[in-house]
Amino acid sequence: MRTIALASLLLLPLVQGCLLTRDTVNQPLDEARVVKLARHMSASDVLELLGGPMEVVQLGRRSAWRYDHQRTKRTGLTLFVVTALNTDTQEDRLWLFFDDQDRLAAFGSTLQASSSEWVLPWVDSHE
Q: Which of 79, 98, 109, 115 is the most buried (most CB within 10 A)?
């Protein structure tokens, strides 16, 4: 019995553990700058305000620019031979649509990256 207890104590650090990680992609979008966007702004004014986009899509003589930022938080728990993980990924995304005169025609954004959470593996972070 003592041998089993001693073996359990020696193996305990090897078979149990927890994990917290955070990953980010790109710089966060600055909401104070995003709210300064206005229809008919020139592309050069937008570049000065937000910097270069992550992607430019040509739509004939028009274009669309995409800005994004992503934050992922991961939680894990290992008990003996079972590992449970939970990952919550949230994004900031901004699309800008320019007309054939390179003037801002429309835009839309979702700013959710800061709401990613570390939650236990058995909890749904979106409830």
A: 98
In a domain, 4, yes or no: no
Strands (E), the chain: 16-25, 55-59, 62-79, 82-98, 104-111
Q: What count of other Cβ atoms lies within 10 Å of the Cβ of residue 35?
A: 9
Is the per-residue pLDDT at 37 higher than 90? yes
Q: Tens of pLDDT along 89-113?
A: 999 999 999 999 999 999 999 998 8
CATH number at residue 111: 3.30.1450.10
CA dihedral 24, 26, 28, 30 (to 10 degrees): 180
In terms of phi and psi (left: phi > 0; alpha: psi -120 to 50; beta: otherwise), the region of 23 is beta
Of 68, 29, 65, 23, residue with least CA distance to 47: 65
